[in-house]
């Protein structure tokens, strides 16, 4: 296991315990967290911004769990595929109903000096909205409905 994979594993383990301090310990002071365009208009920069985001996220998804399926790293850059699951409790502006979600997630991350420097997260938000009943099924998904991941 590479140093980058060790750092990534500790980071995800901290996400799964909702240990905000442990998550922040794994990232650089100037860490960049980027889910654009999924849930944010601009990336989060720095530990204070990440702490604020995580505090809200863990209230919204109090049982959030991330299972890494695959992680491949070089010396400084890695790619991970995961499945994110949780129960959505707090709706954005009261618009979304409570419900169980699961989503396949891809992350590209950069490591330097023993810390995560940058994480770019990609996932199918439309499918998540279909799981919550906010969006109807479309095209080929019409027959199958929303997709969930085991």
Q: How is this structure best described in words?
A:
- The model has no long low-confidence stretch (mean pLDDT 86).
- This protein has 5 helices and 6 strands, in the order ααββαββββαα.
- A 6-stranded mixed β-sheet has the order 2-1-6-5-4-3.
- The protein is of the alpha+beta class and 150 residues long.
- Helices cover 31% and strands 36% of the residues.
Write a brief structural summary.
The protein is 31% helix and 36% strand. It is of the alpha+beta class and 150 residues long.
Spans of at least 5 consecutive residues whose pLDDT stays below 50 are none
Shape: globular
Q: Can you count the helices?
A: 5
**Strand residues, percent:** 35-45%
Spatial order of the strands in the main sheet? 2-1-6-5-4-3
Structural category: alpha+beta
Under CATH, the topology is which? Nuclear Transport Factor 2, Chain: A
Distance between the termini: 26 Å
Q: CATH class, please?
A: Alpha Beta
* Major sheet summary line: 6 strands, mixed
Order of helices and strands: HHEEHEEEEHH
Mean pLDDT score, rounded?
86
What layout of secondary structure does this protein have?
Elements: H1 3-17, H2 20-25, E1 27-34, E2 44-45, H3 47-60, E3 65-73, E4 77-88, E5 99-112, E6 115-123, H4 125-131, H5 141-144
Parallel strand pairs: 1-6
Antiparallel strand pairs: 1-2, 3-4, 4-5, 5-6
From the structure above, extract its key features.
Nuclear Transport Factor 2, Chain: A, 150 residues, 6-stranded mixed beta sheet, 5 helices, alpha+beta
């Amino acid at each position: 296991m590479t140093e980058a994979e060790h750092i990534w594993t500790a980071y995800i383990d901290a996400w799964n315990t909702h240990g905000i301090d442990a998550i922040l310990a794994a990232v650089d002071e100037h860490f960049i967290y980027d889910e654009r365009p999924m849930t944010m208009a601009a990336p989060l920069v720095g530990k204070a911004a990440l702490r604020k985001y995580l505090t809200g996220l863990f209230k919204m998804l109090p049982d959030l769990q991330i299972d890494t399926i695959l992680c491949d790293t070089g010396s400084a850059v890695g790619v991970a595929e995961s499945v994110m699951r949780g129960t959505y409790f707090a709706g954005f502006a009261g618009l979304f109903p409570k419900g169980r979600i699961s989503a396949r997630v891809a992350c590209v991350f950069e490591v330097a000096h023993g810390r995560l420097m940058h994480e770019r997260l990609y996932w199918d938000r439309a499918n998540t909205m279909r799981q919550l009943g906010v969006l109807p099924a479309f095209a080929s998904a019409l027959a199958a409905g929303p997709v969930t991941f085991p």
